[in-house]
Write a structure and sequence with these properties.
It contains 17 helices and 26 strands. By secondary structure, it is of the alpha+beta class.
């Protein structure tokens, strides 16, 4: 049973810098793929000749809530055009994916799970009453095919079986048919049990192609027990806690993600993390909090959203990386073998479709679903999960949060009640003390009894301080609240416009190499850290004008390059002896530092 229910885009709206970030996404690549990228523009999902598998559903999964959160009528019409086309092509027996009947046995039905999840998102955004019946017919047909043996789970469908439960849970709330539960059991039986393969995560094997170690599969599966246990009639055992801990110990990064380029890659700061895994981790964290109410999932969500997500994009969100590195000194095509495991020489470039196009389509869900997790509710209780600039207009009342969090830690809540309700505010663990209307409060959660007709203003501040945190290989990171900080590297860009396999790269949706223009071989020299808040500009995660910096003392060291490479720093410094005097430096938020050194040593005099 869920502890918290989510609101929809009809009830939650972004405000302040967060709304601006969604506008940047809408003005950039994510809001324009249906105009410029043939895999969406000319997809067989809508009658075209190109991709008929995951890319259109991936794109819609984020484009739909983005359109409705921004109340952008043009985007809403474009989303409806795609949904109308998909629904109109549903077969009489319920099959909905674009493939011939004779090819169904070879068609990887991961796309069935994905498109039905998208239809749930569309229904929650639009209220389109066609949708429940379309989902019902799709999954009833899928049950008939699976139970008869005409098709079976394989490859991505086997690895991602639990994704179907988003739509199955939606159906179970509306229909009592026993086939829904039977399909749930079939999926569980034919799907991969990640508990049985978690030992493979402890010793990453580069250049493998096993779905059991694929970083996106793993990011998705963290929520599998949470979303499936009720329909399966089983007790929730908290498997995600155990699996997360294995991943963190053997593959964790400073920003609550895991290395995976594309498969798990250990603890090295010069291995990558795939963008798809970042947005799927965020979605898992969102649902894990909703089902369990455990604060740690919300905190991990914040850290990933405020650091890993913006780091993967150019400021204007017209270009993205396939993989990002914690210590990333250059983003240039490798001349020979890349440093990565199973991705290509261009995977860390910023562009339209570096490596594979899955991330091009899938990244869209990150920010919109994050906004939709700001508030949750259950049985007359409303909780503010994420203290981000946002507004809730629901049955119980209206709540508005004015803040620049996470770049500042002051909040103004304005509440007007239509009915009695209890209002809770989650307090992050890093808040040393919380000030409420001028009075100190110590605890994990604020709670207020709000009465019908009341109008309340709350001024809240989290008192937090920057600190060093240890990382593997005797390296360190700097954190302040949910933000991780890096040594920023000034960079130049080289633009590439070209066509490859019929896909055009043309400004602004072209490719870029980033190359360093400043030093990067530093160690921390003193534990002095001073926060300097500068205010949020037109680009919240600007690489030129970050909204907050931390001033620190550093010294240069002889770090060196990884053996065999001239654009990748060594995993650990070649020498930790200082080669220069003390310097003052400004650390940037990780998400503002497109080239960066995040994990570096601490060398005292």
């Amino acid at each position: 049973m869920k502890k918290w229910d989510l609101y929809t885009s009809k009830e939650i709206k972004p405000k302040g810098w967060l709304k601006r970030q969604l506008e940047i996404q809408a003005e950039g690549l994510g809001g324009n793929l249906d105009k410029i990228w043939r895999d969406v523009r000319d997809s067989s999902w809508i009658g075209g000749n190109y991709d008929g598998w995951e890319r259109v559903p991936y794109w819609l999964d984020g484009f739909i809530p983005l359109a409705y959160l921004l109340e952008n009528e043009d985007m809403i019409k474009r989303a409806k055009r795609y949904i109308d086309a998909i629904i109109s092509r549903q077969k009489p027996d319920g099959w909905i994916c674009p493939c011939e009947e004779s090819d169904r046995k070879e068609y990887d039905t991961w796309a069935v799970f994905l498109i039905t999840k998208v239809l749930v998102v569309y229904y929650e955004s639009s209220g389109d009453e066609r949708v429940p019946s379309v989902i019902y017919r799709t999954l009833k047909n899928y049950y008939d095919l699976l139970s008869s043996g005409e098709i079976e789970l394989f490859r991505w469908g086997k690895w991602r079986w639990f994704e179907c439960f988003i739509a199955l849970n939606f159906l179970k709330e509306r229909y009592s048919d026993d086939w829904i539960t039977k399909l749930a059991v079939l999926l569980k039986k034919q799907g991969l049990d990640y508990n049985s393969v978690s030992h493979l995560w402890k010793i990453p094997v580069f250049n493998n192609t096993m779905g059991e170690t694929h970083i996106v599969n793993i990011a998705m599966q963290l929520k599998s027990e949470a979303v499936s246990h009720e329909l399966l009639g089983s007790e929730y055992l908290g498997e995600a806690d155990k699996l997360y801990e294995i991943l963190r110990l053997y593959n964790g990064t400073p920003v609550a993600t895991f290395t995976g380029d594309e498969h798990l890659a250990g603890l090295s700061p010069i291995h990558g993390t795939e963008l798809c895994s970042i947005v799927e981790l965020m979605y898992s964290y969102e649902l894990l909090y909703a089902y369990t109410g455990q604060d740690i999932w919300a905190e991990r969500l914040e850290i990933t959203a405020f650091n890993a997500l913006p780091a993967a994009f150019s400021d204007d969100m017209w270009a993205h990386q396939y993989v990002q590195l914690s210590n990333q000194i250059e983003c240039r095509r490798f001349l020979c073998n890349p440093i990565f495991g199973t991705v290509n020489r261009e995977a860390h470039l910023f562009g339209l479709e570096p490596n594979y196009g899955c991330c091009t389509a899938n990244f869209n869900q990150g920010w919109p679903k994050f906004v939709l997790s700001a508030f949750m509710h259950k049985n007359g209780v409303v909780i503010n999960v994420l203290p981000i600039p946002s507004e809730l207009n629901a049955e119980n009342g209206h709540i508005k949060i004015e803040t620049n969090y996470p770049f500042d830690n002051k909040f103004k809540y304005t509440i007007s009640a239509r009915n009695d309700f209890i209002f809770k505010i989650r307090i992050p663990s890093f808040s040393k003390k919380t000030i409420v209307n001028g009075f100190a409060f110590e605890g994990k959660e604020l709670s207020f009894d709000i009465r019908k007709g009341e109008e309340i203003c709350l001024n809240i501040e989290f008192l937090i301080t920057p600190f060093f945190e240890k990382r593997p290989y005797d390296l360190n990171i700097v954190k302040w609240g949910s933000l991780v900080f890096s040594v920023p590297i000034k960079y130049g860009k080289k633009m590439y416009e070209y066509e490859d396999c019929g896909v055009e790269r043309k400004y602004p949706y072209c490719d870029y190499e980033y190359f360093p223009l400043s030093d990067w071989n530093y160690s921390y020299a003193k534990d002095s850290l001073k926060v300097d808040k500068r205010g949020v500009g037109d680009f919240p995660f600007s690489s030129d004008n970050p909204p907050v910096v931390i001033k620190s003392k550093v010294r240069k060291i002889d770090w060196g390059f990884e053996e065999g490479y001239d654009s990748v720093c060594a995993k650990t410094p070649r020498s930790r002896l200082p080669i220069g005097g003390m310097e003052d430096i400004e650390l940037y938020p990780y998400g503002c530092s497109k080239l960066r050194m995040t994990e570096i040593p601490f060398i005292e005099d």
